[in-house]
Amino acid sequence: MADILVKLLEITIIIALLIPIAAMLVWVERRMIGIWQDRLGPNRVGPFGILQSLADLLKILGKEDWIPPFSDRIVFTIAPVIGAVCVLMSFAVIPFSPSIGVSDLNIGLLFFLAMASLSVYSVVLAGWASNSKYALLGSMRAAAQMVSYEVFMGLSVMGVVLLTGSFNLREIVLAQQNGWLIQTQFLGFIIFLIAGIAESHRLPFDLPEAETELTAGFHTEYSGLKFALFFLGEYLSVTLISAMSVVLFFGGWLMPEPLASWLPPLLWFILKILCFVMFFILLRTSLPRPRFDQLLSFGWKYMLPLALLNLLVTAAFKLGGVYG
Amino acid sequence: MISALVELNPLQLTFYSAALLAIVASLKVVTSKNTVHALLYLVVSLLAVAVCFYLMGAPFAAGLEVIVYAGAILVLFVFAIMMFGLGQDETLHAPSVDGSKVNQFSLWFGPFLLALLLLIELVYAISSGEIQARLTANTIDAKQVGILLYGPYVLAVEIASFLLLAGLIGGYHYAKPEGVGLDRKNNLGEHG
After folding, report:
1. Domains plus CATH for chain B?
2. Measuring CA to CA, which residue among A305, A215, A269 is closest to residue A100?
3. Helix, strand, coil distribution of chain A in percent, nearest 5
4. DSSP labels for A222-241?
5. How far apart are CA A65 and CA A60, in angstroms?
6. For B54-83, how does the pLDDT look when each residue is reduced to its tens digit (9 = 90+)?
7. How would residue B192 be classed by pLDDT, with cut points 50, 70 and 90?
8. For residue B36, which residues of chain A lie inside 8 Å, CB to CB?
9. What is this structure's pTM?
10. B142 to chain A: which residues are within 8 Å by CB?
């Protein structure tokens, strides 16, 4: 019984930290974009504008939570919850440090992929239940994009599984003690990152919510707290993709020896994640949005063959004894 | 009934509640009139079955159940339903059945018989301690599944892949617009 209570406490703490972090990311993103574009960004609320997210939250709580009369009420309400829950569930298998982590599921990697594929329902159902054309168009784009990019997201991490011989994320981290997997799986990492950006539909892959052509895509009809949930889900999934990249390719909490003793493992893990989050934000400021057909053909014609090639070469090297 | 419930350990309790959920959700799949709602119940049912798989010691099968069925195939179903604009009460358009009793009887008798057999099997499996013990005795991991798929069952895997490839080519053939690559190139983008 005490074990269960400790676990519950751990889960509560992790969730209680993740959600404010995701909310803070909104401010970090706006501020960093501002600085990179040679302006200040939001700097009025609190020191450096750090309380901006709190102000946004208060504002969004005060908005009317409107359900359109032409929508499917139940599905309309469930859709944003599915998205946030799926992403939060994925964090259950992430090993944060040698001792912290909710579950050492022996199919951890598959669990992550499963949750990623379930989160498609969030956008698809949101678009369908809204019963409006912009939302429907946005969610059809989302469905096509996410189903396509899932395929080689799965394939790109199979190289990691081949080399470490495990689906368990903690074992994958521990297998990188003699060198991070980025050395041998560079191609796999690039493919995973691209697929990850597409999964979290961030720019340059934010076609499901392209403002210039679809008003706001699948969440056109949403307001108030439900809209905030979509927003939260997006920033959580940015954090999730960063965490997964670190776990799979950059050694999780591990660091080479002189550096490892400077900071506790958890802090190293968080620092690595922050680097990736910054990269995601920088990507958003610097890349234009492709056309939808370009996006899909890029996926199927370049990413998929590359992922297969990566898997084939990795398997051949592994069999040939190159990786020992 | 209550005392029987108390005797179950947490694992069994989880298993049976997941199983119950799967059954109820499956019933809702065939009874709900809204197509999208029916599909959503099907997703729930598949997820519940995945939980059952996991608790029976087949984590790999459980993972694949969620990724392949709930995550990919049913998304395509929902996608198709969305594209066709279905989703409202579809019974209005259903082909009407002849009112006579014989017809009604022949409609439900076959499925009823199959379901009855399945129910008998299920009750037997649940009540038999031997089957229970065998189900939970060992865990089947990804390695074992892989060895089986590329060992004794390699022919079945190959045949299935032939079938899927044929389906893929067929789908491409039907979806391909006429004169692709000639006059409609501009509509399909540079790579079309």
Report:
1. 1-90+129-138 (1.20.120.1200), 153-192 (no CATH)
2. A269
3. 75, 0, 25
4. --HHHHHHHHHHHHHHHHHH
5. 9
6. 888 788 888 888 888 888 888 888 877 777
7. very low
8. 72, 75, 125, 128
9. 0.82
10. 107, 167
For A:86-105, CB contacts with B below 8 A are 105
Name every residue whose Cβ is closer than 8 Å to that of residue A312 and which is 6 or more positions away in sequence. Answer: none
| Section A178-203 average pLDDT | 84
Which residue of chain B is at minimal alpha-carbon distance from A113?
B67
Q: Which of A13-17, B60-64, B72-76, B135-139 has the lowest mean pLDDT?
A: B135-139
How confident is the prediction for chain B on average, in pLDDT? 75
Contact status, residue A129 vs residue A152, Cβ threshold 8 Å: no
In B, minimum Cα distance to A162 occurs at B143
In this prediction, residues A223-252 reach a mean pLDDT of: 86
pLDDT, residue B107, reads: 63
The answer to whether residue A144 neighbours chain B at the CB level (below 8 Å) is yes
The minimal CB distance from B79 to the residues A116, A124, A301 is found for A124
B75-93 burial, b at 16+ Cβ within 10 Å, e below that, comes to bebbbebbeeeebeeeeee
CB spacing of A128 vs B78 below 8 angstroms: yes
Contact residues, A window 280-299, toward B, CB-based 8 Å cutoff: 291, 293-294, 297
Domains of chain A by residue range:
2-320
Q: Is there a contact between A294 and B191 if contact means CB atoms under 8 Å apart?
A: yes
Confidence category of residue B126, pLDDT binned at 50, 70, 90:
low
What would the pLDDT profile of A270-293 be if each residue is shown by its tens digit? 888 989 888 888 888 888 878 878
Residues 6+ apart with CB under 8 A from A137: A127, A214, A217
Residue of A nearest to B192 (CA): A297
Q: Tell me the two tokens of residue B70.
A: 């709930």
For residue B34, which phi and psi values (nearest 5 degrees)? Answer: -90, 125
Question: Which chain B residues have a beta carbon less than 8 Å from that of A150?
Answer: 71-72
Closest CA to A191 of A245, A144, A237, A238: A245
Distance between A299 CA and the closest CA of chain B, angstroms: 12
Helices assigned H by DSSP within A51-106: 52-62, 73-90
